[in-house]
Amino acid sequence: MQDIPTKAQILQWIAENPGLSAKRDIAKAFGIKGAARIDLKRILKELEADGSVTKKARTYRDPDTLPPVTLLTALPPDDQGDIFLRPMEWQGAAEDAPRILFIPKKGDPALGAGDRVLARLSKVDLDDYQYEARLIRRLGSNPIKILGIFRKSAEGGRIIPIDKGADKDWLVSRDDSLEARDGELVEAEQHGPKRMGLPRARIVQRLGDPMGPKAVSLIAIHQHGIPDRFPDPVIQEAEAANPAPMDAREDLRDLPLVTIDPSDARDHDDAVFAEADHDAHNPGGHIVWVAIADVAHYVRPGSALDREARKRGNSTYFPDRVVPMLPDILSGDLCSLHEGVDRPCLAVRLKLDAEGTKISHRFVRGMMRSAASLTYEEVQQAQDGHPTPRTAALMDRVITPLYAAYQAATKARHLRQPLDLDLPERKIVLSDEGKVLSVAFRERFDAHRLIEEFMILANVAAAEELTRLKRPLLFRVHEEPSPEKLDALREVAEASGFTLAKGQVLKTAHLNRLLAQAQGTEFDELMNITTLRSMTQAYYHPQNFGHFGLSLRSYAHFTSPIRRYADLIVHRALITGHDWGRDGLSPQDIEALDETAKLISDAERRSMTAERDTNDRYLAAYLSDRVGSEFTGRISGVQRFGLFVKLDETGADGLIPIRDVGREFFHYDDGTQTLMGADTGLTLGIGQKVTVRLAEAIPVTGGLTLELISLDGAPLPRSPRTGKKGRFSPRKPGAAAARDTKLKRKVIRKRR
């Protein structure tokens, strides 16, 4: 009788011979023939059932290892320019997938993110990666990614995309379904060439219940590719960090610096203190200290922490979670300026005159100890005459001097005339289970404005200091609106009865005068929205092009290095410029400034889009129980295909499709952003008040569909082409005349 190998022997052989793992190869290796093959088949099935091996295309392999030749997808290059590859057929959790480094040979084509390759793997025993890959051939590039709901069928199923603009489903075969359950949220990619009918996809990751607690932000994280898991080397570096020593730092621990943040803040990266300036040459002046967490001490150039922070660019904030730029041990502990503990900082001493103009500044690398971690609400209550026992003890030494310095700074701000938009921010309040409890306006206090003004002053000082030191840095740039956008704004203003000066160099003061004209009128919100949309988007750049919105010649982000990589670059530049240590701006940092600027500017836009999409989905879920209800709102956007309306109650944006606007053809004017009815002359434009009915709310996409009931308090005019039975001929205006002309030509041709 033949000796049947044990399970352990089979597993060892599969691990040592990954290229010969078919059942016949295993049988041949152990000399198994005839009826004994039945016993081998039984053992292999048992190994497959308990997860010890996986079977694909009649071969068996260790589920925790990869075959020597496999399909891989290229990831974006890391900060060192190395290309890592992701296994396309990994069966385990995505975070457990091995890291594979691409080793190019001379003559190999350059790989870009999304390229699919067939490669030969060699296992290595290294901390950063587990395999090296050598190219056999490139198979294709950049497959389409799909995030959607899986609907199971006998043949496999289909994916219904969650994107609002998606117009088709995707078919999935049973073999490509990854055993996803019906109704599960999945990530997939295009699979196979395009053919007639619905396109085909292969599921690459199962993400669970789309309506589960707090799943909404997870959808945005996956949809926009926001890194939400720190690699092991990053966590190891963070956990190995120790509190910073005093060394040559300036001792600021006797200054009663305080942090002022939202009540739910976990990280505190800025602290402030103010006092009257006793310099006889500066009567009525103020001294303001702004101390910022010294993140550069912990996140060194070229480290795993640094590479990950640069890749993330910034922290991303959702109603139910934060995806931080740095691991929590740093962002929430060692770097955070907690009350009563010593923390390293970079600080600037600002000297203001009685009118709030900055006379001078001085930067130091110091050690501070926060006197209190305060909230905006309690600081404002204290200033308004309702202090708590905690804030009462801080009134004379801390809070009153802060507001005195702020009042002076507002005078300088008024002279500078930064853009003064009035766009209230709404806050989504969630239960512990992730259900929307309410949508309310965020309260704005002078305490908020105080911190904002001091942060702006510190950012200006950082840009000026590094310019003086002739050190490279990343400026925060905001360019003035384009002539085309200004013309569009001017047309809307004139149509509303206001004026915007033409033929002169545009300044924010001109826009503020326009907003002041509209303040308190029915066009108030219209002019604020239209002015905002005329602005360009701010970005980071090594060259200084000024900041139009803040009306500043020179501006850099310095005050939030825990959550923004740009601020960390500015900190390193200050450290190098003042020779404060070896953790300053490296030659590699300087060489990569252009690339870094683009990378983090793109990351900022990615986060903004993900945050907006998440809010849309939460709002749609909140309103889904009120389909059929009527709401008031204002038209916030006009396109050829319909109207966007911002609802007054929640701030949610919904779409009125053009087919439902009115029973007539509408002309679209791109210049004035209006739609005009061909029969009634009804004109629809941004800012008009509307009453709408909620027709549809789809939480998984965040889409709201609305029906227009009234415009500016009046019912919609009736089209003269609506028939007796309410039927409507959807022909375009002039269609009858065109038909008559065509008929006349036909008669003329016949006569000839």
TrEMBL record:
It catalyses: Exonucleolytic cleavage in the 3'- to 5'-direction to yield nucleoside 5'-phosphates. The keyword RNA-binding applies. Residues 715-752 are annotated as: Disordered. It holds the Pfam family CSD2. InterPro entries: CSD2, NA-bd_OB-fold, RNase_II/R, RNase_II/R_CS, RNase_II/RNase_R, RNase_R, RNR_Ribonuclease, S1_domain. SUPFAM superfamilies: Nucleic acid-binding proteins. Residues 628-709 form the S1 motif domain. Residues 721-730, 742-752 have a biased composition (Basic residues). Gene3D superfamilies: Nucleic acid-binding proteins. Its EC number is 3.1.13.1. It is found in: Cytoplasm. Its main location: cytoplasm. Keywords: Cytoplasm, Exonuclease, Hydrolase, Nuclease, RNA-binding. It comes from the Bacteria. Belongs to the RNR ribonuclease family. RNase R subfamily. 3'-5' exoribonuclease that releases 5'-nucleoside monophosphates and is involved in maturation of structured RNAs. HAMAP family: RNase_R. This is Ribonuclease R.
